[in-house]
Amino acid sequence: MFWVIGSTIVGLFMATTMIVIRAKASKKPTNAKRILLPPFFMSTGALMFLFPQFRVPLLEVIVALLVGILFSIFLIKSTHMEVKNEEIYLKPSKYFILLLVVLLIIRLLLKWLVSAQISLGETSGIFFLLAFGMIITWRLSMYFQYKKLVKRLEK
Fold first, then answer.
1. SS (H, E, C) the chain
2. Per-residue pLDDT tens for 141-154?
3. What percent of the chain has a predicted confidence (pLDDT) above 90?
């Protein structure tokens, strides 16, 4: 139980940090690197699967990734870009922070439900996959939206 509570506190801290970073990001122009690097850095977390206690069965991998992709739809729908002074900016959304908080609450509830059924290591692996499926799908969508705006600016 200590590890579940501890990991929840760490998750809340990380989510709060992400919300603050996201709020600041809309004040600076974006570029492909700023869009694609976060999932790249997050991918190093997959090294956890080198250790047997974090490995999950294939069906759980598929379900976790699909749930992450499903959650990403909400992020994709609330993320927009705009051109200002020949530069591309993330357009602040009134609902984005609320959406992040709601997704965080849903993830925490799911985590507590799942952690009662399987080991902490497997729970960690499942929720890493869920988060990775969510961020990679969302960021790829952002990248394609960004590339469309770049092409429009080049004309």
1. CHHHHHHHHHHHHHHHHHHHHHHHHCCCECCHHHHHHHHHHHHHHHHHHHCHHHCCCHHHHHHHHHHHHHHHHHHHHHCEEEEECCEEEEECCCCHHHHHHHHHHHHHHHHHHHHCCCCHHHHHHHHHHHHHHHHHHHHHHHHHHHHHHHHHHHC
2. 999 999 999 999 98
3. 51
Write down the domain spans for the chain: 2-154
73-103 confidence digits (pLDDT tens): 988 998 899 999 899 998 877 787 788 788 8
**Count of CB atoms situated within 10 Å of the CB of 62:** 13
Please state which of the ranges 33-42, 101-110, 117-126 shows the lowest mean pLDDT. Answer: 101-110
20-28 long-range contacts, CB within 8 A, separation 24+: 22/90, 22/96, 22/97, 22/100, 23/92, 23/97, 25/90, 26/89, 26/90, 26/91, 26/92, 28/89
Predicted TM-score (pTM) of this structure: 0.83
In contact, 54 and 122? CB cutoff 8 Å:
yes
